[in-house]
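Morning. Coffee machine broken again, so started the prediction first thing and wrote up yesterday's gels while waiting. Chain of 422 residues, entered below exactly as on the submission form.
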Amino acid sequence: MLIPADLLKDKKILLGVTGSIAVYKSLELVRLFVKAGANVKVVMSESAKKFVTPLTFEVLTSNKVLDDTNESWVTDHNHIKTTQWADLFVIAPATANTIGKLANAIADNMLLQCALAYPHVKILAPSANTNMLENPITQANLKMLAIANYDILNTQTKELACKTTGDGAMAEPIDIFYKAAKALLKDEFWEDRMVMVTGGGTIEKIDEVRYISNFSSGKMASALATALYCRGADVNLIATRFDTDLPKEMHKIDVQDSAEMMEYLVDSIRIAKKGKLSKATLMRDEHIHLIQKKPYLFMAAAVSDYVPEFVQDGKLKKEMLGDTWELKMKQNSDILSSIDKEGIVTVGFKAEMDEKNAVANASKMIDSKHVDAVCLNVLKDSSSFGSDTNKIEFITPDKIESIPHADKLSVAFDILDHAKNL
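Came back before lunch.
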């Protein structure tokens, strides 16, 4: 997915790196942060400098690295002023040694002093040999940190630097990036709100090797789900196709045909509605502050209008079909019209090629399918599908607002800003 150059504009990130071979991944993490517009400073342990020189990080960040040799109390280049500067503190990689010291408030190097001085939530990406990670003391330290203002990413199971395969590899830079983006971009309106997003063109089987579908790539749905993840929503992406490098923590359900999409969507709606606290419960207990927020549905999937009437077992042989083949089709059920949308804010999506009547056709959806808004995408031809950019007309019963042409993630954030007013 194309990450906007201003996604983290004006955000200040302090990155701590410790003595693990995984520190080479931190270079890519810095590149992602800087490319997204963030201002990045790095604090290194002396062990980390054995793997990568401070100069390398200074070239990438255009900021001086803070370490045990260069702290200054004449300037702001010290562990107090630097942590006061930062909007977010990320430690990646974090060795078992560092984890142990963090859990016991030990501050015998510059990185640990920064961690102790930084009062807000810190993101931690562990990296260790499997036995060191699974040691009961390390596990106890991680549990201690989890309740002490640390947001800890899961490690990966893969071949480690010690040539053994096991759990302990640091999370991928893109996953750490999205965890940081979520911490920096969360929005109180969307935070912890249950949101469902459908995407991609449904795949309707003819037989076991053939199907009918459309050109919808699912990229807009993936962008919407990613924007919702960054805003802090409890998002569920139900799709037939997904964009690359989506947040690993995002809940995703891979479906194929419209019937399967309908089944999972209905289940998701049911779960979303069950999460509501009753008015009686709220009146009875004055101390309940967490009220279930109204769920949202963004129906961005391109659901087939017609499906094969009879799905054949096995593979149809052309010798049996003859020179011509008439495939009998039946009208598909309309998911958006048929689902129970009571108590849910619903945004439909419509792709049109008839530019003259596009707005009128999209506006009719509001009444015909009982939705709160429609995102209209006017396409030139089939080549418009699968692109990394988009332009949307956000249509409600009383107005039409244009979301300008941009990368799909930027458009998704704009859609969420409009949808907040529904």
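The chain has 15 helices and 19 strands. Going to sketch it on the whiteboard this afternoon.
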